[in-house]
Design a protein that fits this description.
The protein is 67% helix and 6% strand. By secondary structure, the protein is of the alpha+beta class. A 4-stranded antiparallel beta sheet has the order 3-6-5-4. A two-stranded antiparallel sheet has the order 1-2. The radius of gyration is 45 Å and the shape is elongated.
Amino acid sequence: MTDPRKMSFTLPFTAIRIRPLVLLLVLFVSVVLGGVTATWWIGGLWFLGHLLILVGIQTLDQALERSFPPLGLAGLLALPLATWLLLLGKIVTPLYQWRGFLHLDDVPLGAWLHLVALLPLLLGSWIVSLRLIQHLQRRVHRRGQRILWLFGATGVGVLWCLLWQHPETSLTLGISLAVLLVSADIYLETNRTSLTWLLVWLLLLGLITATLVVRQSQRIDLVQHQFISQDIARLGTPDTTRRYHLRFQWDTLSNSTAQQRLPAALLSLEPGQGKQVRKQGRADWVWHRTDGQGFILVGRATGGMRLPLAITSLFFVVALFYVLLLRVGSWAFGLPYQRWALPLFGPSSLRVRIQLAFFGILLVAFLLVAWFTIYFFRAESEFYNDWLEQLLSLYVFLLVIAGTLGILLANSITEPIVRIGQRLGGTRLRDNEPISWPRQDEIGRLVNNYNQMIRELETSATQLAQREREGAWREMAKQVAHEIKNPLTPMKLQLQQLLRLEKEDPERARQWSQMVAQRMIEQIDGLALIATEFSHFARLPEAKATTFELGDLLQSACDLHQTNGSHTSVQFNRQTPESTVLADRDQLLRVANNLIKNAIQA
């Protein structure tokens, strides 16, 4: 029976195959998420994000089958992350329950779920970006040129940030995007998978998210302070009917008091104008009354770097859990995750398994400690909020440090195994270099076994070569003996025939002796050449091509075997008057002798 987890169908008008069970599961979660947040397009983003992960690589490869210029690849490279940033800016607005906050729980759960719905789209955009960088590496082989194109893609993202009216975040986003793209290029070029890359990318993406979210919340908070200052100018006190979920401080200053407390830049404000002042962990809105009778200050503590660190840590933990769940799900449903080019989704690796096991144990241990801590301090509400966010950042920091140490430890364990595997892949019969290991532990014994193996292999190769040379000598001796023996018998018969003719017919013997002598000299020269070449490590004579008449050579060989001591007659029927060839005369003569000898014996 067919495994339902591996069943797939092809999308209409494409060659993209997708698992129906996976599609139904993602669709179900999307509907649930849209119903919980009461925002159905958020569920649609969750669905589209997973669809991008499942079919994005196939669609991209089909679109880039033909040659694509680096400029186009750089433009496409900025598109996925820019789209994610655009959607992030769309979601972090009061329309979707987002507001200014001093603690993480000041924002409703639905607003946080909106951000969670962007995780699949973010991961899919990053997978597509990695694939685009791979295509860029195929077209631009020099790393320096590629980095220039990657900086160009970063510039497009920064330009989009400026168009989004976020000039104060452009530097942070530009640096983060540049580090992301350059690190992805190094990762793909070295082709060495490690969990370290995933941790670095999640931290950088968390930093980008925290920067945009905090800045947007401060803008929303600023609008609230402007309304409050206008209410104070109109009513003399904040409007109690206008609900504001955060505590704030306000004050009214006369012109004389303002000259003592406010800097000159704020005193120069025109009536009806205002300006935000940030210093010492506070954000205050200073508004000059429209009647010119003083200034109104409205502000609150911003928490400093605590909030960006807390959001970065929260994003890191949630995104890491999501990636791990996606990895388990892709393995369970047989998805082609090897093509996603992510560290945890590549080929099976002992290094990654050790890193993941170590990091997973640390993650579970930290979560248990965090749960017990939250349970113990849950009654201390004021202390609970401030301390919990700092604890979250501290836990993530310690988790990253411990995970990095674990990754280094896993690398130190697997490095000699990887080196041995590389050496085994390049092992030859001779000239293999041994591996050095300073300690006599399990790895040391494995290294010693490898070194002993290559020494024994060297000895075996020497013995094998010696036996092969001896065998070659024996085979060559047999061949030389065969080459020498073939013409000896007919030469002996020719001499015996000549001796008989001298007794019976001396006159005919003198006529025939000249022909026999010429044939004998020719055969003896061939045998002498074989004997000379045999001294050079038992190899056959090298071919020396000359032009000669083939019919004369064959006639000579047949005449030599004419008197063969048997009842067999050897005759040569010349078909053409002349047949000139370019070949080695001695080798062809031996061929003719062997053929005639084999024919007579047959």
